[in-house]
């Protein structure tokens, strides 16, 4: 009887899975969250599902994956994401959510975070390639960016050198869009690099606060690894 009661309790806790409004969007939501996505109100249907079933979904991910559904608000915008519980790494493979950002992704993340705060009062915070280029050539950390991206600091760089950086930027922006930190848009004057930095980029700040606070040390360590 004890086992029957226990099973019945578990079944009842998952009754929300049978609701039509839940079933309609849960598959998409599950994919986004488990790959490390951050969801805010511009993704209306998934955000609404999270808002309505926050406690139920937190129970679902805690029970099945040992992950916590987290909710944060930055600049009056709320976003959701999955996080590890304590020191746990969750019940996922090392190649899934446990994968850390590469050095190049970390560099771009720090750059975008700086640009986010520079545009603090702008809504939306739209970025095109020329903005990134100015950040690299004239920004606060210009010397470090040049050293990392071009291996040496100079006044100018060739078209092919910029081409390699642009290729890396495009790849990183696509990855950041999957994580919900940016949203790409079409712009006739900016080539293929045009996107909006979203409030959820704040999550990057929390994850990489040590690299951000000690950026010069991060750069020097990275250079030593490449030598």
From TrEMBL:
Gene3D superfamilies: 1.10.10.2250. InterPro entries: MksE, MukE_N. Pfam families: MksE. This is Chromosome partition protein MukE. The lineage of its organism: Bacteria, Pseudomonadati, Bacteroidota, Flavobacteriia, Flavobacteriales.
